[in-house]
Structure formats: structure tokens, C-alpha cells
Amino acid sequence: MKNTTLLRHITLKKVKNTHPSLYYRHKILSAYNLAIQEKWHLAHSEIDKIIAFARNKDKELYFDALATKSTFLGRMGLIRASLNASAKIIEELPSLSEKQFFGDGAIENMELQIGLSMSYLGEDKTRVKAVFTSRSILS
Fold first, then answer.
1. For 2-134, CATH number?
2. Which residue ranges make up each domain of the chain?
């Protein structure tokens, strides 16, 4: 069992050095596993590391990590923070109607997250739009 763990660690370290985006996609899945176990602090910590890595290096990974963070915040009941995380993605996308930007995954996740947030708010699209446009930068 220890040999398998050591081999896995060596393999992940090699992947991190040779294919960092693939490594960090693996870390997104690891963060989801932590979230499923309700280890929210660790899950957010993993996602924050991915966001820091990808910010200026890999737009698609960056947006997927932001969307994941938004999902985690929504699941924790932190709706306003979830919407703010989603808004960061929306502000950087040229158009939600052009689904080729930054990979379909981030945009589809964003659409699902907005729908989920709308259902949490129990409001219509006008109310959700108002939340996005009137939000405080620091909230």
C-alpha cells in the first residue's frame, strides 16, 4: 500500500512539472472530493491555489476554478458570495452567447450556477440581474 501511495505522489509531481494544467484539473477533482466530505476549508484552499496558478497562465482552467468556487459557495448557502464569484467570470467573457470562449465547461457551469442561484433567491431574472449590477466589490 505504501509503494502505491509513493508511486502516486511521484507520478503527480512529475505531471505537475510536465503538464501543470492537467495536474491542476486533477486538483479540482480532489477539491470536489473534499467538498463531498464537507471539508469546506480544505476544498476552498485547493481551489484558491488553482485560481492563483491559472490566473495569468490558463484562462479555461482559471474560469473552471472560479466556477467551482462559486458552486462551493452556493452549496454552503453563501449565495451573495457565490454570485460574486460567478460575476467575475461573466465580466471577463465577451459574450455568453458565444460558447466557444474558454471552453464550453466554464460557460455551461456558469449557466447552471446562475439558474441554481436564481432558484435559491426565489426571484426572477430581473432580481438576479439587479444583484449582479448592484453588488458591493468587497462582499
1. 1.25.40
2. 2-134
More confident residue, 20 or 131: 20
81-88 CB contacts, 8 Å cutoff, 24+ apart:
81/139, 82/113, 82/117, 83/117, 83/128, 83/131, 83/132, 83/135, 84/135, 84/139, 86/110, 86/113, 86/114, 86/117, 87/132, 87/135
Mean pLDDT (whole number) for 13-35 = 85
DSSP annotation string for the chain: -HHHHHHHHHHHHHHHHH-HHHHHHHHHHHHHHHHHTT-HHHHHHHHHHHHHHHTTT-HHHHHHHHHHHHHHHHHTT-HHHHHHHHHHHHHH-S-TT-TTTT-HHHHHHHHHHHHHHHHHHT--HHHHHHHHHH--TT-
Q: Is the pTM of this model over 0.70?
A: no
What percentage of the chain carries pLDDT values higher than 70?
50
Per-residue pLDDT tens digits for 106-128: 566 666 666 666 666 665 566 55
